[in-house]
Amino acid sequence: MTTTYELMKPQISSVDVPEDLALTWENINLYAINVKNSLFKKKIVTRTKLLRKVSGIAKAGKLCAIMGPSGSGKTTLLTAIGQRNSGDIRREILLNGRPVTKDMMMKMSCFVPQKDLAIKSLTVMEHLRFMANLKMDQRTSQNTKKETIEMLLEEFNLSYCRWSRLSELSGGEMKRVSLAVPMLSDPPLLLCDEPTTGLDSFSAAQIVDLLRVFTAKGKLVIASVHQPASGIFEMFDTVCLLAPGGSQVFFGNVDEAKLHFSKLGFVLPPAYNTAEYLLSKLSTESQSLSRKFTDSESHKALLNDIE
């Protein structure tokens, strides 16, 4: 029996997926700098390490997830890759083997925050028109802007609520609006911070499917994901797993992740949420898992892929 979700599910074609774009990050270390001033003493500067030698690669046509329990640095890593954070950071980020400057990254990428930033009294149409004037080239004609908005309303299944105020939308509808906005400028790189958080499993699956549509168009898409619903984990192509404290415990495709952890003795119980099971292990055995990943074949394969 065909479900409503299957009828609404975007159709993905693998024919038009370019495979020549690759963004790599290697040995990212990030420290938060805390400065305390005192009237009678010298200012005290402390450093807290948030990310510890994290590496990975995102390719066009492949949907990449950053996962980990609370306090693992998912959003921190996402903003570090997008060069949008402060602090003492040491990183090497390359696009097709060439260094990416902060200015270049800001121009080529769009960051979608977890919390939707919008004037809630506007309708969906008014919001998209407003954002089109901000994001699209000033030389773009009004007709082209109108056509682009109409195309996005159709693609994101928002036509039926175009005149609804943002304050009246459901969580899933509002998230689709948030994802439609960056598509106005059609960036090659999309960074999404916890796009499925707070959504039911149906809405979360819709959002991840939209991200897969972006990758099918040749875009690089990286998303941080917190506590994914059952089945969401398997919808991603590659996954970067972080443990509390910002240490990396895995990078590779989803099937390799299951195999890697099964070799370490963590066998997924029947009918159990894969991501939920793995994240529970990351919270209790982070240090040993990080060392074992460094010594694993998966880590060697990652370094070879980056090179």
UniProtKB/TrEMBL annotation:
It is found in: Membrane. GO terms for cellular component: plasma membrane. SMART domains: AAA. One of its GO terms (molecular function) is ATP hydrolysis activity. Keywords: ATP-binding, Membrane, Nucleotide-binding, Transmembrane, Transmembrane helix, Transport. Its main location: membrane. It is a multi-pass membrane protein. Residues 33-269 form the ABC transporter domain. Gene3D superfamilies: P-loop containing nucleotide triphosphate hydrolases. Pfam families: ABC2_membrane_7, ABC_tran. Belongs to the ABC transporter superfamily. ABCG family. Eye pigment precursor importer (TC 3.A.1.204) subfamily. This is ABC transporter domain-containing protein.
